[in-house]
Structure formats: C-alpha cells, structure tokens
Specification:
Layout lengths: L5 H11 L54 H4 L3 E3 L9 H10 L7 H6 L8 E6 L13 E6 L12 H10 L10 E6 L7 H17 L6 E6 L14 H13 L3 E3 L8 E5 L12 E2 L12 E4 L3 E7 L5 E8 L4 H18 L5 H10 L2 E2 L5 E2 L2 H9 L5
Parallel strand pairs: 2-4, 2-5, 3-4, 5-6, 7-9
Antiparallel strand pairs: 1-11, 7-8, 10-11, 12-13
C-alpha cells in the first residue's frame, strides 16, 4: 500500500489502529466498549471562524478564508506545519505548536536534574518510520520490520509520533533512553504481526546482559480484546503478552483488559500544573485494571513523502490526542524511575506510580512525575 499524503495517512491510521476512541455508546457505568468521542470532557468554545469546529483536523489545509480563529479554537485543532493560517492566527498557531512540545507535569525540571531515562532500554511496537527525524535520530538501537517492509514508503505519522513522545530531544519524556523498535502494518488488522514483534523483543531481551535489559514495551494499539479493531489472530497477541510477562517484560498497551492509561488535556499556558490536566473521559472508563490519566494534547514528530518522493520531517499538534499518546509517555516516566532505582520490579514501580498520582475532584488519578520520582528516591538504599 502506497501512502503519499499526511491526510490519507492520518485517516488510515484513525480507522485501523490502535488506541484512538472508536464509535460506541455508553450503556452503563461499567463500560464494556471504548468510550465514544461524545464522552469527551470538552469545554464550551464558540469559534469565530465559520465552519471550523473545535477538535477538527485541519492538517495541510488553507484556512485563510475563515479569518481569525483565535487561540481558544486553535488549541483544540489537529494541525501541522503545512496548515495555512490567516495573518492574525499565524503567530498564535506557531506558539501553540511550540508549547505542545513541552511534556508538562514537571518533566523538564526533572530533566534538569539529570533524570532522563539514561541507560534504560525500552521497546516500541508501532508503524514503520524513517529513523532520521531530527527529533530522535540516533536513538533507535535496533530496528526491524514485520510485514511493513513490503510498503513502498517507509514512513508514517504514528511511528514517529510515539517515538518522539518517548525519547524525543525536545518532546520526549526520557530523551536518553535506548530504543528497540519493531515496525508492524497495523492497517492489516492482523494481530499476528504484533505477536511476532513482541516475541522478537522477548528473544532480543534474552541476549542482553543484566543492566541493559528491556524494561518496558510501549504498544500504542489494542491488538486484542473488546476494544480491538483487529480482525485476525487476536489470540496470538494474548499468548505473546503472557510470554512477555513471564519473561519479566512490562507491556503497556491500549486494550480494555490490560491497559492502564486514560487521557487528559493539560493547560498549554501552565503545563506543569498537574491539577489542571482535565480528564477527557468523564466519568472514567471502568476496566479490569486501575487507570491513570496522561496528558495527550501534544505536539509530536511526523513524517511524510512529498510529491518528489523525498521524506519530509516536521511536527504536528493534536488538540485531542488519543490513548496512543499516553502509552509512550508512561513508558518514559517509568524509564526515569528505573534510572533512579533499576532494581524496582514491574509491580513495585507501578504501585509507586499510582500511589504518587494526583487525585482529581472526580476521583480520577492523574500522573504526577515529580511526586513519582520523589517516592522512587525513597526506595534507594542510602
């Protein structure tokens, strides 16, 4: 399958992946399907521009004819460097794009302390990508493709996005972590590719010496379960998931059954204020595992192929990111914790994560990386 434009690619990914909310309805307080977009906790916004609505995808579109949209509307949109704005909105959009690079939640303050996930190895299973994006160039230790190598174009929107969120130079949570990357063709809706990729991670991990083992696998997809859009070999993923757990790997995915993240929208003008990250699903989804809200309204790295057949590297902003963005964020926070105390077990570090979380007025947990790191420090023997 050949993909030439970011708009087509985004549509393909939204339909076939992953962690993006699918269209279902909430029938009771105990959810058995993924919440629909209608359950978003969206503030009331009255756009000044005609026909441009909050949370609309305006990537690569010319918006000049719509006049001034204003900050409140623009910060809800999905846009990229190719979006053309009115003269009144050009600076506003650029500022929002830059603001969205900040991970928020005190992450950059932790970076200044040298807590960057250094010497921690993590794995990503996602779509194929070009490794030369300036945001993460040189950070992938090993890259292998399962099925996606049959594509003519080795780029995607999703792969670069999750990689930048985890280890990006300006965007990432753990910019000094090491990445093992397995690329899979999610659009085929065949979970066997994900299972094979996870088995590869398990095998690679067995070869690594102590101190260099892969600690966590970030999977921004739901390859099985009741939230899954996949149609083939869902049981293969479940079996691989069990094998990974038995091998000591912590696998973070977006399934109803095993996923532990939710999404919240942080304040772009005060991103470090944990209490200001508003949960996107209210009430929260009830699933077998306790969940924690992660900021997903972020700027991410992106790639496409231009009309001349060359790879373009750029950034895009999502005013309402899906669960896909929450998984690498959490993997990065855990990597920072393991940098402080690499002896923490998967169970122990997750317990610290939830105990350190901020509790909102509605009872939802919101990730608090600084409080998490402080608790991790207490586990280190003096």
């Amino acid at each position: 399958m050949k993909i030439k434009t970011p708009i087509i690619l985004l549509l393909l990914i939204t339909i076939t992946i992953s962690c993006s909310p699918q269209t279902h309805s909430i029938l009771s307080t105990t959810l058995t399907t993924i919440p629909s977009d209608s359950t978003k906790n969206i503030p009331e916004i009255t756009p000044t521009g005609i026909f441009i609505e909050p949370y609309q995808n305006v990537q690569s579109q010319n918006l000049v004819e719509y006049g001034k949209l204003g900050e409140d509307l623009i910060k809800t949109l999905t846009f990229d460097k190719f979006t053309v704005w009115s003269p009144q909105d050009q600076t506003i959009a650029q500022v929002i794009l830059e603001q969205g690079k900040n991970p928020g939640m005190g992450i950059r303050e932790l970076h200044q302390e040298g807590i960057t996930g250094k010497d921690i190895t993590v794995a990503i299973i996602d779509q194929n990508m070009n490794l030369d994006h300036p945001e993460f160039q040189g950070k992938v230790i090993k890259y292998i493709e399962f099925g996606s190598e049959k594509m003519d174009d080795s780029v995607s929107m999703h792969g670069p996005a999750v990689t930048s969120l985890l280890v990006g130079n300006t965007i990432g949570i753990a910019p000094d972590a090491r990445i093992y990357y397995t690329a899979v063709p999610s659009w085929l809706l065949d979970a066997q590719y994900y299972a094979d990729a996870l088995d590869w991670v398990i095998a690679e991990n067995e070869k690594l010496p102590e101190g260099e083992k892969i600690r966590v696998v970030s999977v921004s997809a739901a390859p099985s379960g009741i939230w899954s859009p996949f149609t083939k070999n869902l049981d293969a993923w479940d079996a691989a998931f069990i094998r990974a757990a038995e091998a000591g790997l912590l696998v973070l995915d977006c399934t109803f059954e095993e996923g532990i993240t939710l999404m919240c929208t942080y304040d772009l003008n005060d991103p470090d204020k944990v209490a200001s990250c508003i949960p996107n699903w209210d009430p929260a989804t009830h699933s077998p595992r306790e969940r924690i809200n992660i900021p997903t309204s972020r700027t991410t790295a992106s790639e496409n192929i231009n009309n001349n057949g060359k790879v373009q590297f750029f950034y895009r902003f999502s005013g309402y990111g899906g669960l896909s963005w929450s998984t690498p964020y959490l993997a990065g926070v855990l990597a920072m914790g393991w940098q402080i105390n690499p002896r923490l077990s998967n169970e122990h570090i997750l317990a610290i994560l939830f105990h350190s979380a901020y509790l909102s007025e509605s009872g939802q947990r919101i990730i608090d990386p600084k409080a998490f790191i402080e608790r991790v420090k207490l586990t280190v023997e003096k």
